[in-house]
Amino acid sequence: MQHMHAQVSTQNLQQLTIKNTRADSSLINKYDKGLNKKTIKAEEIKDSIRQIPNKYIKNVNNKIGQYNDRLTKKTEKTLEKLSKWETKIQSVLQKTSPQTAQRLFGNGQMTFTSLLQKLKNGESITTKYQTQYNAYNDKLTTRLKYLQQQKSNLDSTMVKPVAEANKNMTELNNEEAQTTAVQEFIKQRKKQLMSGTAQYLKNNKYLANINKEAFYYETTLKNYKEIFSDPTKTEQAVTGMLGKIPAFQKFAQQNSMFASLFGPGSNSVNTADSEALAGLQTKDQIQGIIQQHISAGGPNAQAMISQNIQQAQAQLSQLKDKLNKAGSSSDVTSPDFKPNMQKTKTFAQRLEYGFNIQFVKSNDYVPTSANMALTAGYKLTDKATLGIGASYNLGMGTIQHIQFSSQGVGLRSFADWKLKKQLSITGGFEMNNNPSLNDIKLPSGITPVSIGTWQQSALIGLTKKLPIKSKYFKATNIQLFYDLLCNQHIPRSQPVIFRVGYSF
Prior knowledge:
The protein is built from 13 helices and eight strands. The protein is an alpha+beta fold. An eight-stranded antiparallel barrel has the order 1-2-3-4-5-6-7-8. Strand 1 (351-360) and strand 2 form a beta hairpin. Helix 2 (54-96) packs parallel to helix 6 (156-197) and helix 5 (135-149) packs antiparallel against helix 6.
C-alpha cells in the first residue's frame, strides 16, 4: 500500500509540474508577444516619422517667419501713423482746450506714441488681454511639439530645424498676443479720443484718419491670419500621417490647447462631470418628446415642422449673404465709411493675371493672325486696376492656304474702371511690332516715312465679365474696343477689336 501511495503521489507531482511548466510557458509566450507588439508599434512610429519630408519643416518655418514679419511690420506702421495723427490732435487741443489736452495726454496717460515706444523696446503689453483661440495654431504647435519629443526617431537633418520651428512658433504666439493687445488698445484709445474731443473737434480729419486706420489694421490682421491658417498640401499630408499614429493622438489629447480647456490630460468626461450631468435629458429622450408632440399635432404636423425648418434655414442663408456682401465678419468692426478693401491685402493678392486672344483678318499685306497676350494687373482700389502685358502675333495664312508664321510681338498697358458689378470701362495704349511690314512695296505717292514696323494703338471700350470658370481660370471676360489711331496705320488696321480673355 505504501508503495502504491508513493507511486500515485509521484504521478500527481509530475502532472502538477507539467501544468506549472505549461502555465509558465504560456505566460512567457504572452510576454514575448507583448514585447513583439510594442517593438512593432515602436518601429511603425519610427518609420512613419521618418517619412515626414524635410521640406515640411522648411515650409512651416518660412510660413511662420513670414507671418511674424507681417504682424510686426503692420503693427509698427499702423502705430506710427496713429501716433502722427494723435500728435496733431494734441497740438490742436492745446490751443482750444488745454485742460482736455492734459486729461487725454498728460498724467502718464498711455498714448499711441508711448505704446509704439514700448513695442520697440521689447516690453510686453499682453497682461490685460486674452488671445483668441486659433485652431490652426493649436494643431501646428501640437505637431511641432510632438516631433520635438520624437527627435530620436527623426532624421538627423531634421532635428535642428524642428527645434527652430518650435522656437519660432513660440515667438509667433507671443507676437499674436501682442497684436491682440494692440488691437484692443487702439479700440479703447480711439473711443477715448473721439468722446473726449467731440466738443472741440467736430468732423476733424485726424480723428477720421485714426478711425480708418484702426479698421484697416484690424481687417489686415484678419487677412494675414487667414493666409497663415490655410494649410499647404505638404501640411495636409503630414497631418494625415501623424493622425494615424495612436501615440500622437494621445499626445494631442493631453498637450493641445483645446484639450487644456477641459482639464489636464482628459479626453472624456470624468466622474465628477458625469455626476453633474446626471438627470439631464439624453438625445434619445429629446427625440422621443419631439415625436410625441408631432403625433399629437395630427397628420400634417410633420410637414409643418419641415416647412418651418426650411424657412429658418432660408433666413439664415440670407443673413450670411448680407454679411458676405458687406465684407465683414463678427470679429471685425463695421466701418462708418466706404473702405478700400485692397489696402487690407498683400501685394500678391492685389495682382490679377490674365490671358486674352483676338483674331485679325487678312489683307493684301498681312495674313489672318491670332494675337495672344498675357497680362498682369494691379488693383489700386476695389474699382480701379492698372496693368501691363505682352503679346505675340501668330500668322495663320488664309482659309485656302493655312500657313503658320511669326507676325511680331507687342507691348501693352491698360487701365480698368468698374462701372457695375460685372461691367467695366477699359482703356489702353499698345505698341505692336510687325517686321513683315518692311517688305511692303509702297504705292505711288506714299513715302517710306509713313511706314514703320512699330504701330501705336489707343484703345477705349468695355469689358464684360462672365460667370464662366473652371479649375484652370477664375473668370471669363469679353472686350470690345475702338482703336482711335487705326487711320494712322499703314496698311490701315481694323477699327473695332473684339477679344476674349480669362483671369487666373
